[in-house]
Design brief:
The protein is α/β, with parallel strands linked by helices and 500 residues long. It has helices at residues 54-70, 72-75, 78-94, 96-107, 111-131, 167-180, 198-207, 221-229, 243-256, 278-290, 307-323, 341-356, 389-392, 408-415, 431-440, 475-478; strands spanning 2-3, 9-10, 17-18, 20-22, 25-27, 34-39, 44-50, 146-154, 157-161, 184-189, 214-218, 236-240, 260-263, 268-272, 300-306, 360-363, 379-382, 399-405, 420-421, 423-427, 445-448, 463-464, 467-468, 481-489. It has a 7-stranded mixed beta sheet with strand order 16-17-18-15-14-20-21, with helices on both faces. Strands 11-10-9-12-13-23 form a 6-stranded mixed beta sheet, sandwiched between helices. The termini are far apart. The structure holds nicotinamide-adenine-dinucleotide (NAD).
Length: 500
């Protein structure tokens, strides 16, 4: 099959077997086993990857430890670490078409979406490469007899675990922060869509990153992931994924008091005020919930609307959802597949339960009956109340719940009324109201009039059960270093005069 558009590459060009990258080498798993990767758009096998288990994790952690202990990254002038990272970005950009194909076939995205992943990943390396030489300590005045300063120091071996929805971009944001701060990395890619993450390894290899600085392997969560986070030589954990897995990783981290960054799930709400531009609400909401088939941690999965605008908004949202094409990403459809059969079953089950509970599916609500892959129709539920499971739990699919309110305090309380606190949104022309609402909403980031407003530069992370720590933006780097204070007595007597 020829892949058109901006990607001049054939689907059959995709490599059928992928190795892990440990200590600067492409290697099979020690067990010789592999994991079969499926194309979610066809439900057919696509490729195999070497299946890493505990022994492979041991090798990777040992390589990362050797590299860290060698101080090769740490001793490098930070500006040169930055230049190395620009090289990684350059190679990722050069491989963008190959990456787009891999991401389209193993993850389900459109080719444009896959290419955007590659470019976003490259952007993380340029952004944090540019910051590598700007992470400074400070001097603390203690009077004439002392010199006191702080040094931001890396933790050591950073274990990073990545989910399947944006595997490359999420891997890039964590690996880039780690390299900028001279940590070394063992990254476990997601077993459902690992292929694009290997391109980070390839880019590091081509850029001449020291052996062992970045190790990327794929395995199942319950053995490879669990043994990585419990490994006695890991110093730092970055986890992006579900609440349940995050909680189990935290239990493992408690034993060794490991610092963790936890980027977990969400149930984020947009609040519409009466003066909002309704068409802007519809377009922003469609992007907020239907992009990447709703498999976005920061998806706008709830919309809280004033009773007065309810009918107009529900009608327009339903029309928008019905206008979207559902089908394989490779054909450029609007609604691409969800990642797996079990995920599609789970989403459909939540939709059916919502109807049973009294919600009205004004669009969608089912798996696609015609398509062979794992497709969920773009879904809009009206008549949703705060007590329904569909209003409280993460669906991780193209499913929007519309709730109504009569006064703004009720709207804020509905928005804040779940266990999660990743993102929130406000739709209004009144900036004073937007500012007030942003302050009231309990979330790591608030979007005003455009869901997903922000980028690599803007700090991202959760409150409540959405986790803690920040990725993206300058703030992220603070999670990859710990402050060492050096206090020096420079005189033997008083008054600051040497020898005095
Ligand atoms: P998941 O928790 O099932 O898996 C995430 C990763 O953890 C996978 O690589 C998996 O293999 C691994 N894993 C599973 N069990 C493990 C264990 N016991 N020990 C170590 N690793 C283990 O999540 P998912 O289904 O891949 O991703 C969807 C979830 O991720 C959603 O909840 C979504 O909101 C969240 N997410 C959050 C962000 C964010 O930045 N906050 C971004 C993307 C996705």
């Amino acid at each position: 099959m020829f892949i058109g558009g901006s990607v001049g590459i054939m689907a059959q060009d995709l490599k059928k077997y992928w190795k892990n990258y440990i200590d600067g080498q492409w290697v099979d798993s020690l067990s010789g086993e592999s994991i079969v990767i499926e194309n979610p758009a066809t439900a057919q096998p696509l490729a195999e990857v070497a299946r890493a288990t505990e022994q492979d994790v041991d090798m990777a952690v040992a390589a990362a430890r050797r590299c860290f202990n060698s101080r090769e990254l740490y001793n490098m002038r930070p500006t040169n670490r930055g230049v190395l990272m620009f090289e990684i970005a350059r190679h990722l950009t050069e491989m963008a078409d190959e990456i787009a194909l891999a991401e389209c076939l193993d993850n389900g995205k459109t080719l444009t979406g896959g290419k955007n992943e590659a470019l976003a990943a490259a952007r993380y390396f340029t952004y944090y490469g540019g910051l590598a030489d700007k992470l400074e300590g400070r001097m603390i005045p203690l009077g004439a007899d002392y010199v006191d300063y702080t040094i931001p120091t890396p933790f050591g071996v950073s274990a990073q675990i990545v989910p399947w929805n944006f595997p490359l971009q999420i891997a890039a944001r964590s690996v880039a922060c780690a390299l900028a701060t001279a940590n070394t990395v063992v990254l476990k890619s997601p077993e459902l869509s690992p292929l694009s993450t290997y391109f980070i390894a390839e880019a590091c290899d081509r850029a001449g990153v020291p052996k062992g600085a970045v190790n990327i392997l794929c395995g199942y969560g319950h053995d490879c992931g669990a043994s990585l986070v419990a490994h006695s030589d890991v110093d730092h954990i970055v986890f992006t994924g579900s609440l349940k897995t995050g909680q189990s990783i935290l239990r493992a981290a408690v034993e060794r008091v490991l610092p963790c960054i936890m980027e977990l799930g969400g149930k984020s709400a947009g609040v519409v005020f009466e003066d909002a531009d309704v068409d802007q609400v519809i377009n922003s909401s469609a992007a907020g919930i239907f992009s990447n088939a709703g498999q976005v941690c920061s998806a706008q999965s709830r919309l809280i609307v004033p009773t007065k605008l309810r009918d107009e908004i529900v009608e327009k949202l339903a029309a928008k959802a019905k206008s979207l094409s559902v089908g394989p990403g490779i054909d450029g459809n609007d609604i691409t597949p969800v990642i797996s059969g079990p995920q599609a079953e789970k989403i459909e089950g939540m939709c059916l339960a919502a109807v049973q509970a009294g919600a009205e599916a004004v669009a969608g609500g089912r798996k696609s009956a015609e398509l062979a892959g794992h497709f969920i129709e773009p879904t809009v539920f009206a008549n949703v109340t705060a007590d329904m499971t569909i209003a409280k739990e993460e669906v991780f699919g193209p499913v929007l719940s519309v709730l109504t309110y009569d006064d703004v305090d009720e709207a804020i309380s509905l928005a804040n009324g779940t266990d999660y606190g990743l993102c929130a949104g406000v739709y209004t022309k009144d900036l004073a109201m937007a500012h007030w609402a942003a302050d009231q909403l309990i979330a790591g980031q608030v979007f005003v009039n455009e869901w997903f407003a922000g980028g690599v530069e803007t700090p991202f992370g959760g409150t409540k059960r959405s986790g803690y720590g920040r990725e993206k933006g300058q703030e992220a780097l603070q999670n990859y270093v710990q402050t060492k204070n050096v206090g020096i007595r420079i005189t033997s007597g008083g008054g600051g005069r040497p020898g005095g």
